[in-house]
Write a structure and sequence with these properties.
Helices cover about 15% and strands about 30% of the residues. It contains 5 helices and 14 strands. The N and C termini lie close together (about 10 Å).
Length: about 270
């Protein structure tokens, strides 16, 4: 449950971010029908796209016929999130374990792929973790304010439904798991580096599971819709040098916020 000081929280974290250099109702939402890109490879679609110039997000819908939803979709992500009274308990249970993993610089983000067997249960449905990606600044905003980083854990159920657990990172004490990840970033693009030791990605999660839930899309082409977003509203902390290490690679790999279009956002 939120306390009154949560109402001023977005302003506080916004001030922290500014100190850094630039850089449903009960009915189930629709299933993704044969998406054009699986979650684990969403950043590796064939047609060129990016975050600058003619390949920037405003032009994604014109780069390929497969990217039409990026331009014309009505349930796109990310969105601006605004505090509302919680409507239930945060029914998210993580079941992650120490696993082998690979890290790749895809040319649009740093992506982590972990071995099978890592799951999250969200409101009674089980999803397997497929990939983790990082974005600077945050893709979702809190009351119009961007935060330094957003981290997205992309999952998929046995029926093909995609669920993303996302959370923010602000400046503070360093995260030991991120140290391990950054040390293993490959020197070249699209080179898969196998980590020398197993990692437990639960070590990067916030301590609280309270979150915003809504139905949106992938934030990269082909912008497939029907994605269950669960944006945790408690941030983690990374040290200043950890944040800057990522921003040196990707100072702005974030899609701008998209229209809500009367969608419901539920605060759990």
């Amino acid at each position: 449950m939120f306390q009154l000081n949560k109402l001023v929280y977005p302003l506080c974290v916004f001030l922290m971010a500014c100190s850094l250099p630039p850089k449903e109702d009960a009915n189930m939402p629709p299933k993704i029908m044969q998406p054009q890109a699986t979650p684990a490879v969403q950043a590796n679609v064939s047609s060129a796209w990016g975050y600058d110039g003619i390949h920037s997000p405003n032009n994604w819908g014109d780069l390929s016929p497969d990217y039409g939803l990026c331009k014309n979709g009505l349930s796109q992500s990310p969105i601006n999130l605004v505090w509302s009274r919680p409507q239930g308990s945060p029914d998210i249970n993580f079941n992650y374990k120490a696993s082998s993993a690979q890290i790749t610089d895809t040319g649009t983000t740093i992506m982590i792929n972990v071995a099978s067997g890592n799951y999250v249960a969200i409101r009674g449905e089980q999803y397997e973790l497929k990939s983790i990606s990082f974005h600077s600044s945050s893709e979702h905003t809190l009351s119009g304010n961007s935060l330094p980083l957003e981290i997205q854990y992309v999952h998929q159920s046995s029926s093909g439904q995609v669920a993303i657990v996302a959370f923010f990172a602000i400046e503070g004490p360093r995260n030991q798991l991120v140290d391990k990840l950054w040390r293993n970033i490959p020197q070249g693009k699209n080179i898969e580096q196998v980590l020398t030791e197993k990692i437990n990605v639960a070590e990067m999660l916030p301590k609280k599971n309270t979150h915003y839930h809504y139905v949106g899309s992938l934030t990269t082409p082909p912008c497939v819709e029907g994605v269950h977003w669960n944006v945790l509203n408690t941030p983690i902390t990374l040290s200043r040098d950890q944040i800057l290490a990522f921003r040196q690679l990707y100072p702005h790999n974030n899609r701008p916020v998209q229209p809500l279009n009367k969608r419901k956002v539920i605060n759990y």
